[in-house]
Amino acid sequence: MDRLRGIEYFVSAAELGSISAAADALGVSPPAVSKLLAALESRLRIPLFTRTRRGILLTRDGENYLARCRKILDDLESAEAALTVPAQSPRGTLVVGMPPNLATYCIAPALHRFRGRFPEIIIHLRRAYRDSDLAAQGLDVLLALAWLGKDDLIASRLAQTRFLICAAPAYWARAGAPQVPADLTTHDCLVYRIPEATVLDKWTFARGEERSAVQLRPKAVCDEQGWLITAALNGAGVVRAVDLTVQHHLERGELVPALLDWEGCEAPPIHVIYRKLQRRNERVRAFVQFVRDLFLELESGRLPRTNSAPRIAPKPEWWGRRSVHSGGRANDSR
Description:
By secondary structure, the protein is of the alpha/beta class. It folds into three domains: 3-81, Arc Repressor Mutant, subunit A (Orthogonal Bundle); 92-161 and 268-332, 3-Layer(aba) Sandwich (D-Maltodextrin-Binding Protein, domain 2); 163-264, D-Maltodextrin-Binding Protein, domain 2 (3-Layer(aba) Sandwich), CATH 3.40.190. It has helices spanning 3-16, 19-26, 30-44, 60-81, 100-107, 111-117, 133-136, 169-175, 225-233, 247-251, 282-300; strands at 49-52, 55-58, 92-98, 121-127, 141-145, 153-160, 163-167, 189-192, 202-207, 210-215, 220-222, 238-242, 256-258, 263-264, 269-275, 330-332. The strands form four sheets. A six-stranded mixed β-sheet has the order 4-3-5-15-6-16. It has a five-stranded mixed β-sheet with strand order 11-8-12-7-13. β9 and β10 (210-215) form a beta hairpin. α1 (3-16) crosses α3, α1 (3-16) packs across α4 and α2 crosses α3 (30-44). The chain starts with a helix and ends with a strand.
């Protein structure tokens, strides 16, 4: 039995919760994974997994063994990284998931630069929102507007976003701009709904020590931010938008922000997330460095100009009330 390969297969199956998903990630057949896991359990003389119709679950012994195996693989990777010269031109397919608003307004406009630098990498972009999509959709990398928690994935914070209250000039001319957050109750507000979860119809604000929470009566609710922004551009009402996704509309005067003396609370951070098994994948490493550089650039040119960086928002109460919960979560490594 190849003990090191057995450890790699075990860690992959444990992290993905499925023998077939582990086989896909490792590029082998499911029977090959099952055979090596059975040999590993036979060698250890303990069951590492409980098999169910829905997949596999770690036993208590399996959980203890997983922690030790992760350390072994991390130490081995560190030792090899110190001696290995990375490939100059990574090639192959890279599957990247992200919310459509990040794809449309942040990544797609700069993707030609990544392609120019790494012409042998073929990128597949997929709609994705949460860290459980890594396994569910077979993603190599995920960009997420999200708060993170557990440590079974690798995550790096790319940016802290800022919420902007925006509308088209024609709408503000017709309805008047709000002077305080409470004025929003008289406006046509276009509200985002987290896919399959909470309607974010309570907007909160801070100004110094002052706080204001506004319960809206939305004129439209949508789980696609891009549609809300398009509606706002055409004068339909007021949208609360992530600042980095509306920069070019602000530059061209197509959207005008209001309530700039107030900070919109609960703005999510942007993370890049991937599985520990992908740590040495040159395609993943190339893309992660690309988005790190890109968001540094986007942050340096963000509008409107302010004298302070966006406030780091703690995880809001509604985040725990989402109806669809992610499986593994990630530890912010930045």
